[in-house]
């Protein structure tokens, strides 16, 4: 199985920056597409950014030009650099990944526990 653990959340002023990290551990064959999601109070969970193993990325329109997703396949980690943060970015951010525990079998979908990001004066 795969364990995903996020870190780097916290309180930051508008216009500030944070870097989130997600580390995968456990017994698995390979991790495929990964991404960051977020959920604000009273809102549905939304996709923030995704990244493939070869580095192709996709972003929700509201964060384009401000957030950058990255990954290190050898280390089984992904990051999210968040710049020019706005109050509307406040949410719990979740790491997600698709992985095969055994080669040749179906991929499973795994989630981290979430990390709080609060943007406020």
In terms of topology, how is this protein built?
Elements: E1 2-7, E2 10-12, E3 18-26, E4 30-39, E5 46-51, E6 57-59, E7 67-72, E8 77-82, E9 91-100, E10 108-111, E11 115-119
Parallel strand pairs: 2-11
Antiparallel strand pairs: 1-3, 3-8, 4-5, 4-9, 5-6, 7-8, 9-10, 9-11
Structure characteristics:
four-stranded antiparallel beta sheet; seven-stranded mixed beta sheet; about 120 residues; about 55% strand; mainly beta
Rg, rounded, reads 14 Å
Overall, the morphology is: elongated
Largest sheet: 7 strands, mixed
Helical region count? 0
Overall description:
The chain is mostly beta strands. The chain is 0% helix and 56% strand. The chain contains no helices and eleven strands. The protein has strands at 2-7, 10-12, 18-26, 30-39, 46-51, 57-59, 67-72, 77-82, 91-100, 108-111, 115-119. The strands form two sheets. Strands 2, 4, 5, 6, 9, 10 and 11 form a seven-stranded mixed sheet that branches. Strands 1-3-8-7 form a four-stranded antiparallel sheet, with no helix packed on it.
């Amino acid at each position: 199985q795969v364990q995903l653990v996020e870190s780097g959340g916290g309180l930051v002023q508008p216009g500030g920056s944070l870097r989130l990290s997600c580390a995968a551990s456990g017994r698995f064959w390979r991790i495929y597409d990964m991404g960051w999601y977020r959920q604000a109070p009273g809102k549905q969970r939304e996709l923030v950014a995704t990244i493939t193993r070869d580095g192709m990325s996709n972003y929700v329109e509201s964060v384009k030009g401000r957030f950058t997703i990255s990954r290190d396949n050898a280390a089984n980690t992904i990051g999210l650099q968040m710049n020019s943060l706005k109050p509307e970015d406040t949410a719990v951010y979740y790491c997600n990944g698709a992985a095969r525990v055994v080669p040749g079998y179906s991929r499973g979908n795994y989630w981290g526990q979430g990390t709080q990001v609060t943007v406020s004066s």
